[in-house]
Every structure is written in C-alpha cells, then in structure tokens.
Design a protein that fits this description.
It catalyses: carbamoyl phosphate + L-aspartate = N-carbamoyl-L-aspartate + phosphate + H(+). This is Aspartate carbamoyltransferase. Its EC number is 2.1.3.2. Helix content is about 35%, strand content about 15%. The chain is α/β, with parallel strands linked by helices. Strand 5, helix 6 and strand 6 form a beta-alpha-beta unit. Bound molecules: N-carbamoyl-L-aspartate. N-carbamoyl-L-aspartate binds next to helix 2 and helix 6.
C-alpha cells in the first residue's frame, strides 16, 4: 500500500468513517489508512505552529481536557498541554504525586472520579500496561493513551512516523533499525506496529537480555550486533536505557553497553549516508547515544520529533472530540 506524502481530504471516507475509534489506546487498533489520516491532519498544525501564534483555533473552546499522569513526564505532558491550549481548550493537569492514588485509591475509583468531573477528553499516562484501557472502559469521554507501562505509546509512534515522512518524503519501503532497550519500551512496541503496518522493514537491535521473547512475531528481524543491525538503514531509532524499569542486572555496565550498542559517529557510518537518527527522549547522553550524533544538525531529528509531537497531539485531540462537538458526519 502506498502512503503518499499528503493525501487530499477527498481520498478518505467521509466524516467519522475516516477514523472510527472513540479512544486512542494503541496503534494495534489502527489501520494504515487511519494512521495516514492523523498524519495528514497533523501537517496543517505544523505550519500554523511554525507561524508562531499562541492559539490557532477555537475548535475546542469550552471543552475541558484532563491530563492525568500517574508517571513522570516532561515532554509528553507539556506537549499535550500545549496542543490542547492551541486549540482553545481548558487544560487541567493532574500529577500522581498530588492525587489520591498515593493514598491507595484503586484505578477504578480514580476513573469514576475523573468521569464525574465531566472532562471532554482524558489523556492518561500510567505505569501499568493495560491501565489506560481499563479507565477508557469506565468513562464517557474519549481517552488518549500517553504511555501505559511497557504496552503502547501511540502518539509517540505517530509523531515518529510524521517525522520520518517529512524527512524521507515517505514512510514506506524504508529500512528502520530500532535499537537499545526494546524490552522495556512502549515506544518500540508502538513504533514496530506502526512502521511494519505502513510497509517498512523493521529491525530490532538489542542485547539478548533486552530483546523481548518472541519479538519476531511482530514481523521484525532481530540483531544482537549493532554494526550489523544498522547496516544500510534509512532510519536509526535509538531508545533510552530504562533503568527505572529494570529490577535486576540486565547489563554488565553502562560503559560496556555504550561500547557495544552506543550510537557513535563511527558506528553511524554503517547506516546509509543520508540516514536520520531519532530518539524519543529523554536521552542518556554518552550511554545509548553520543552527543555529537544527537546534536548533529543534519542527521538528528530529535528536536523535530518534539515539534511534530505538538502537531500530532493537536490532530488527535481534534479528531477524537469531533463526535462530542457534533461536527457534521461525526455525530
Ligand atoms: C518515552 C516514554 O515515556 O515512554 N518518552 C517519551 O514519551 N518522550 C521514552 C522513555 O521514557 O524513554
């Protein structure tokens, strides 16, 4: 299937048939068609964001979005907050440290409380895989998954796909190496789902201890040798070593990890000469990626990923609240 750079709106089924979901829980529920619909919707916000106005649209005026983050976040929380505000919504942030969760409230009670507040959309990050779906099942408004445990982080995969599409002119038929701590990474899972679905060759490059069992079932090729894994790749996507998710010794040392799996300028020479380097952040500089690679103005897309994050989240908030806003064809 060909995903053109931007499809004309007339290419999509009309109204709500273009994106049939009430929630955005994972990439696993989406079709290639729906992914490209979100990416095309995001493109318009990229241009407007670059134009610099603080608020672009009153589309979401009068709506309240609650960002309920049960796990720490800097860029994802900020990105959702900015996205909501640029569309004119009232945005409220709830941090777990300040919530009753710390006092032992169950997830269902939290969901019922959030529901009673009559939010128009909930953006949830939670440390447990499946928690966001559980809350979505209990509330009346659209729920967007901002990362649940090791499961999924769909807006990250969408912003990564948009970044690749803009840099490479397409997001199909590319060789993409996802490298590092794949075992603990919801970013890797969502990206593998999205990028294989769109028709790319996806490689997973990781030490055996950080390679999820049976990952080949996700239609990827696995490598334990980094030099082999990134050979002739169009895209090298690095992942953070998720030390907070490691309850034992997965690695001898950060130093040895860097020697075998760190992305250095020398190692990057194995990839295609025009290969781009991605990282979802936050980075461990000098561990999975050298600063000279991360800050390379030509190859690194790291700040562009952050920029695309705002546009993609604007698109997702807009699309998922259309039913509520009774947009013709979506009600
Ligand atoms: C990622 C996450 O939280 O899953 N970060 C992010 O959303 N930008 C990746 C990570 O924490 O390493």
């Amino acid at each position: 299937m060909t995903i053109a750079k931007t499809r004309p709106v007339s290419d999509y089924p009309p109204g709500g048939d273009a994106f049939r979901h009430r929630h955005l829980i994972g990439i696993a529920q989406l079709t290639p068609w729906e992914i490209s619909y979100v990416l095309d919707a995001a493109e318009q916000w990229v241009d407007l964001n670059r134009a610099g106005a603080a608020k672009h649209d009153d589309a979401l005026a009068g709506l309240t979005i609650i960002n309920a983050f049960f796990e720490n976040s800097t860029r994802t929380l900020l990105s959702f907050e900015i996205a909501g505000k640029r569309l004119g919504a009232d945005v409220v942030n709830m941090h777990a440290a300040q919530s009753s969760v710390k006092k032992g409230e169950t997830l269902i009670d939290t969901a019922m409380t959030l529901n009673a507040m009559r939010a128009d959309a909930l953006v949830i990050r939670h440390q447990s895989s499946g928690a966001v779906q559980l809350i979505a099942d209990k509330v009346d408004c659209p729920v967007l998954n901002a990362g649940d445990g090791r499961h999924e982080h769909p807006t990250q995969a969408l912003l990564d796909a948009l970044t690749i599409r803009r840099r490479k002119g397409k997001v199909e038929g590319l060789t993409i190496a996802i490298c590092g701590d794949v075992l603990h990474s919801r970013v890797a899972r969502s990206n593998i789902l999205a990028l294989t679905l769109l028709g790319n060759e996806v490689r997973v490059v990781a030490p055996p201890t950080l390679t999820p069992p049976a990952i080949e079932r996700m239609h990827v090729t696995t490598f334990t040798d980094m030099n082999e894994g990134i050979r002739d790749a169009d895209v090298v996507m690095m992942l953070r070593l998720q030390n907070e998710r490691m309850d034992g010794a997965y690695l001898p040392s950060a130093r040895e990890y860097h020697a075998l799996y760190g992305l250095t300028p020398k190692r990057l020479e194995k990839a295609k000469p025009d290969a781009i380097v991605m990282h979802p952040g936050p980075m461990n500089r000098g561990v999975e990626i050298d600063s000279s690679v991360a800050d390379d103005p030509v190859r690194s897309t790291i700040t562009e990923q952050v920029e695309m994050g705002v546009a993609v989240r604007m698109a997702c908030l807009d699309i998922l609240t259309r039913r509520k806003r009774k947009i013709p064809g979506w009600a």
